[in-house]
């Protein structure tokens, strides 16, 4: 590593650490202000509160790291430009590509860190946070003599399996008991015409040795329809009915009762893998969440590509001017991300395309700027 590379990395590390610590402090204050009164109202201990706040920091690192990287890169390069250090390096025959190579390497490392966070650490943190909050709520409700809903229990479940073309409607689903009550399953053909409807007073489910789920419906009717006319052809009653093709995962059904933003990567990937993507249905929001997590690491490269053109022009201008301009562009990027996410969640755009549109547009704008700077 050259002396110049070490110098750039040392200056960048100072600003990055300061920016990251500042945002961490602000995030702790914000979460503490919003969450501490809520947990105190539930009579939760301080150990639970501190654990929840620390896990919240892990969850928010995927947002704090790109912002800190943006500020640190633009500030370091703008300072070097103001002090004529970039001009001296270029006069010595060092191109902008080679001069900023340490920053691109840092961007690659942070992109890998974001991928690790999103795939491993953030899912664990998010699931643990949800568990801590649920336990605190259950304990408070139980201490007041209220009825405690068992963990893994959900009511009014509506789950659409787009891959198998089935729609499940369940009045009450219990993962711990392995039972579901008031179950209705609609089956459709490839033209989205109903061909079968199974109704049961209750159903039992269990996981088999091969990993598939087995559903046994009890006390109901098995109705068959003519797909062309929609008329009912048969509706025999049954005491017990087992359909081998009906292997939908009840845990994935339980995820459908939660908001997509509260699901971890593991949970939302399981949902998308089984439920598929339905452009006109609620599954689009879960697919959008999945692809948004996968596309998040690319933002580290977007940040550097946006920062360099603003940092190396303008002569003896304060570094904070470049920081303000780039930060404004970064906010615009997040606005565009939210705008595309809304289209992806509604099914107006395929979720994968909606997740990558902001990064692609900014890259198309930034890389020609980088070429002109070089």
Architecture overview:
There is one protein chain. Helices cover 60% and strands 17% of the residues. The radius of gyration is 27 Å and the shape is elongated. Helix 2 runs parallel beside helix 9, helix 5 packs across helix 9 and helix 10 packs antiparallel against helix 11. The two termini are 22 Å apart. Strands 1, 2, 3, 4, 5, 6 and 7 form a 7-stranded antiparallel beta sheet that branches. It is an alpha+beta fold and 374 residues long.
Order of helices and strands: HHHHHEEEEEEEHHHHHH
Number of strands: 7
Mind summarizing the main beta sheet? 7 strands, antiparallel
* Broad shape: elongated
Q: Gap between N and C termini, in Å?
A: 22 Å
What share of residues is helical?
A: 55-70%
Radius of gyration: 27 Å
**Uncertain stretches of 5 or more adjacent residues:** none
Q: Kindly report the average pLDDT value.
A: 84
From the helix content, strand content and strand pairing, which structural class follows?
A: alpha+beta
Total count of helical runs of at least 4 residues? 11
Strand content is 15-25%
Q: Which descriptors apply to this entry?
A:
single chain, 17% strand, 374 residues
What is this structure's SSE topology?
Elements: H1 3-41, H2 46-82, H3 85-91, H4 96-99, H5 101-143, E1 153-161, E2 166-174, E3 179-188, E4 194-207, E5 213-225, E6 232-234, E7 237-242, H6 250-255, H7 265-275, H8 283-295, H9 299-311, H10 319-346, H11 351-373
Antiparallel strand pairs: 1-2, 2-3, 3-4, 4-5, 5-6, 5-7
Helix pairs in contact: 1-2, 1-5, 2-5, 2-9, 2-10, 5-9, 7-8, 8-10, 8-11, 9-10, 9-11, 10-11
